[in-house]
Design goal:
The complex is a heterodimer of chains A (47) and B (196).
Chain A (H helix, E strand, L loop, with lengths): L1 H13 L2 H19 L12
Chain B lengths: L1 H20 L1 E2 L9 H15 L1 H6 L2 H21 L6 H17 L4 E4 H7 L2 H4 L14 E4 L27 H15 L5 E2 H4 L3
Parallel strand pairs in B: 2-3
Antiparallel strand pairs in B: 1-4
The chains are: A mainly alpha (47), B mainly alpha (196).
Chain lengths: 47, 196
């Protein structure tokens, strides 16, 4: 358990804030375009 | 799919172009990004979650789609200063106009649907009704569509393996998203920032 906590702290300290910002921006943009009315794929009729 | 492809293509192009110029690509900085999460939530419930999308009546799903798109349009307007956002805004407005004018769903022309799927699948569709509980589209003949030129009427060429229908608004949204990502945030030398 102690090792897990230490590894988690080590991992989060290595996360580049720019990468986090990029991921957040990308998520926002993907949700935006999906919400815009992503083109219809009607292969899944009846799902 | 075409919209997500535009996002991926724009990201890769932005990164590549910045590297070519010897500068750093910075992703766009959105204002009020929480609006996107808020705006997408009604659609997620009405069209993506398997349990809720089957329970909700069509009227509720239609209202969810319209409300959702209005919130997302507000987000686009709040971020109008970003490159490409004016194209996104026009695309959104086009889609919202045709959705609003046709009962709250995006009309899919019968012609496009017939070219999109096998006859065995096409014959199971009902004109005037939604394609499925997961769909934002309603199948309509062109004569019954208001603002038909803005409807889901375009199909990619047959050599494209993924089959989908898209609208004029979708084209503008894809172009706007691509421009937003390629758009001109690379101002810092890569050796200075250490980013990307």
């Amino acid at each position: 358990m102690k090792n897990l906590i230490n590894n988690s702290v080590l991992f989060t300290s290595k996360i580049n804030k720019t990468h986090v910002h990029f991921a957040y921006m990308l998520l926002a943009l993907v949700l935006l375009v999906l919400g815009a009315g992503a083109p219809e794929d009607i292969g899944g009729v009846g799902r | 799919m075409v919209l997500l492809t535009a996002v991926l293509a724009g990201t890769l192009t932005g990164l590549g172009y910045a590297r070519l110029k010897g500068s750093t690509w910075h992703p766009p900085v959105f204002r009020s990004a929480w609006l996107v999460l808020l705006g997408f939530l009604p659609q997620w419930i009405a069209f993506y979650l398997p349990y809720t999308r089957k329970l909700l009546p069509d009227q509720v799903a239609a209202a969810s789609l319209v409300c959702s798109q209005l919130i997302l349009l507000v987000f686009v307007i709040v971020n109008f200063r970003l490159p490409g956002m004016f194209l996104l805004a026009i695309g959104f407005a086009c889609n919202l106009a045709v959705i609003g004018a046709n009962g709250g769903f995006m009309p899919l022309t019968v012609d496009a649907a017939s070219r999109l799927v096998d006859p065995s699948v096409f014959n199971r569709l009902t004109i005037g009704e939604r394609i499925s509980s997961a769909s934002k589209d309603v199948l309509l003949p062109e004569s019954r569509i208001v603002l038909s030129w803005l409807a889901d009427r375009f199909i990619p060429p047959t050599f494209v393996p993924y089959r989908f229908a898209f609208s004029f608004g979708d084209v503008l949204i894809a172009a706007g998203a691509f421009w937003l990502l390629v758009g001109g945030n690379s101002t810092v030398s890569a050796t200075d920032s250490g980013d990307f």
